[in-house]
Each structure stands twice: as structure tokens, then as C-alpha cells.
Amino acid sequence: MLVNNETLTRDDVVAGRTTLGIELGSTNIKACLVGPDQTTVAVGSHTWENQFVDRVWTYSLDAVHEGLAAAFAALAADVRQRYGVPLTTVGALGVSAMMHGYLAFDAEERLLVPFRTWRNTSTGPAAAALTEALGFNVPLRWSASHLYQAILDGEEHVGQIASLTTLAGYVHRRLTGRHVLGVGDASGMFPIDPATGTYDAGMLATFDSLAAGHGFPAPLGDLLPAVLPAGAPAGMLTAEGAALLDPTGTLAAGIALCPPEGDAGTGMVATNAVAPRTGNVSAGTSIFAMVVLERPLARVHEEIDVVTTPSGDPVAMVHCNNGSSELGAWAGVFGEFAAAIGSDVGQDAVFAALLGAALQGEPDGGGLLAYNYLSGETITGLDEGRPLVLRTPGSRLTLANFARTQVYSVFGTLALGMRTLADEDVAIDSLLAHGGLFRTEGVAQRLLAAAVDAPVAVASTAGEGGAWGIAVLAAYAAAVAGGEPRTLAAWLDEVVFAGAATVVAQPEPADVAGLRTYLETYEAGLPIQHAAITATH
Questions:
Q1: CATH top-level class for 10-245?
Q2: Is residue 525's pLDDT more than 90?
Q3: CATH number of this structure's domain 279-460+483-537
Q4: Could you say which protein family the record assigns here (predicted)?
């Protein structure tokens, strides 16, 4: 939600009464500048894509550096166009990125192996061993799983590891020189002890004992970033860091940074879902639900991550590797068709038409079935994936049914995972949704409400996303430095979201029943995925 000079004056930009958030997502690096009232005043972005190299999903560090500079340059150009001034400073800065994965460095801070992102699911033996030994679910994509798998596989580089971090932690270190991480992002590397707010000491000792048995002597705690809660100071932008963001030299050093966070944490902030009994659903390349817990889960569940809010409160996370990418691919095909017949209407219009058609589809999808599995999916037991559209001879292939099943494919695996939280009697007062999928009003929101069988809210800030969320966290850190006494949850409620408009969709009985029927076929059809993986490489 961009605002103009009526809300933010040129003097505010020049004086640095703004905060800047940068988020490195799966397909875009976004920069968001917010004003003193936390409204967005300028934006910039850069498109990038992961690469599948030697059967590993990765991004090169050169692509990281180039993308940061490109996104900042686009933001600076937007500032100059809107306000007629260069962007020389901001009041505070924050960086967030995709959680989890594996970035291992030697003592000279040289990357030892290509960045292994959250999307890699080749860590099954390590994740299973750690989950059993720690009595805590350690998913495939967590940094601890990646490290332990490398140890089990006897990878040559493990003896040279001097530090481990996430993508947000890496960028933050390049900007400030500090090896730190926000507690929410850190909780996707290794389990956090809620009592201490840092890595669980007993579990660290267990990991060290397991690793030592395979010849890995370094204490894991010495390799991981220091953990910081929301509001804590996390360093200052160095001259080298300023040059990385802005090679033109216009941006000055000396800007304070908040703790770097993961995209799950910034999603919680962007939806005001950081207090117990609140939750959010973030839909992008991956899709996940976060529910802030009142009490620990009764049992360990492989399909449920336990992570934390940016303040360190425990969160149950249902994470699905595959989100809206396949829907986006189909929208691209329909866009090409429209252009081929002389109706180049643009991608937003194509998405709006597809999502609008989905509401006209039969509640059960008319007998069609769609899987959006571009990569493996833990919840459904898949190490790899193959996107598929299936139908029986008696199914009804219409645009409406096709569109509905594609949206169902985005939410299908999430719905299966959310059943576990329902079985645990986890209380949810509000579930808020955000991400580009919800920009078309009322469609994805309504079908998500059916998938989770609960009311789903979309706030006026829902389209802002994680870059805005980390900018807000930077603003909170600046406020705390200035004496702000309120918790993050209270500050968000009373300052940031006090006037936010919210639209709530209730689950419609016909949609709930139709999706239940669809999911029965969806689960029964999972062996088709296994067969497709075996047959195609």
C-alpha cells in the first residue's frame, strides 16, 4: 500500500525518518521503505530464480550480491522519482530471507559448498536420527539436518567449517560484520529453549555427542550465530556493507540494523500474528501456517515444526515446500495463449480470471485432481515431486473446475498438516493470510477457509509481505532503542495495526464438504506421485 507526499514529506526522506526492509524470497528480492507511520512509501525489487545444480537447489552468492544491489537501486530510483531526492540514509534497516538451508564457511569466511536451500530434501537419514535422539522434530530442511547429513556422508568440507548461518544471517554479516540471527530464524537452524531464548543446551550436547561419533569434533554452539530477540540491537551498517547495497556510494554507513529474520517471522509480523492463539498462512513459492502456542504440543509430529516468533514465543509451523509456483506456471501458459490470439491482457488479469473462475467450479473439483509438487514434500512422504493434472473419463474438465483444483493443490498439503494441530486441540482465535495469492479479493481466502475449516482474515496490509514485515521490525528496534516499553505484540496491536481494515471469510459448508471429498482422492492418489518420480528423472 504505497502512500504519497501527503503522508511522508520530502524532509522525512532526507532526514532518515524512515526504515528499510529487504527480503530475499524464493523468486524476488524486495526492498521496502516505510515512513514514520509504518506505511510503505517506496519499493524496489529484483527477480531471481533458484538453480538445480548437481541435484541441489541453490543460489550463487554472486546472485545474492547482484540481487541486493539491484533491488536497492530500484528502491532508490523510486524514491528519487516520488520525492526528488537521493536515498542517502534511513533510520533503521533490517534483512530477512528464506529460512533454513545450509551455508557453511571456513575461518576466512569462504563458502565451502554451494548454498543448499530449504527446498532440498536429501537429508532424510540425518533428520530421522536427530529427531529420535533429541526427542524433538528436526525437519529435513533445517540447518542441523543438512550439517549432520554432510557429517554422515563424510563430506570433505565438514572439517573446515568455522561458521554456519542462514541466508538472512549471511547478508546481515556482510552488512555489519556480526555473526548473529533473530530468534525466529535461528529456530529453523536448531531447537530453541523458550526459557533461555537461545539454542537448547541439552540438545546441543546430544548433537555434539552424535557428531563426535562420526569424527566431527567442533561444538555446534561455536558454529551457530548468536541469537537475538526482536528489538535487540544487531550492529551498524559498515562502509563495506553500504557499498554492497549501493555501489554508487550514495547510501551512508552507520545505520542501525535489527536482528535478521526468516520469512516466517516477517510473515507473522506482517499479519500481526505474534501473540498466543493467533496464526497466519503465508502463500508463495512455499506455503506454511504458523500458530503461536499457549502450551507445548503433547507429542512430536514429523509434519509439525516447532519454531518461534521474532520475540521467542513457541510456534507450531505446518510447512509445505510447494505453494503457488505451479498455479503461476499455468497462469503463464494461459497468458501466452491470450497473447497468441491477440489479447495480451497482462499477468495480473490472467490471475484474476483464473481465480475468479475457481469460484464457479464444482466444490469437489468435478473429478479433477492436481498436484503442485515441483519438489519433495515431507507431509506426504515425497523426496521429490512431479506436477500433475489427472482426471477420470467421467470427470468434468472445465476452466472453472481446472482453476479450482489448481487452487486446491496450493492448499491441499497444508490442509493435511493442519489436521494434526486440530487433533492436538491447539486453540486459534484468528488466522490471517498474506501473500500475492490473496490480492484477488475473496477467492483464495474463501478456499483457504474451507481447507482449514476456520475463519480466515486478510488485512489491508496483507499484500505488503515480508519486506514490509522486516522494515516494521527495524522500526520496532529503533523504538526500543529510544525507550519503547511495550512488547512486540502490544506495539504491533497499538501502533502498527490500530487502524488496519480486515476482511474475514467464514468457511462455507459446500466448500468444506467438497474439499473433504477432493482430499480423499488426493491422498489416495499419492502413489501416482511415487510412480511418476520412479518413471521420470
A1: alpha beta
A2: yes
A3: 3.30.420.40
A4: Belongs to the FGGY kinase family.
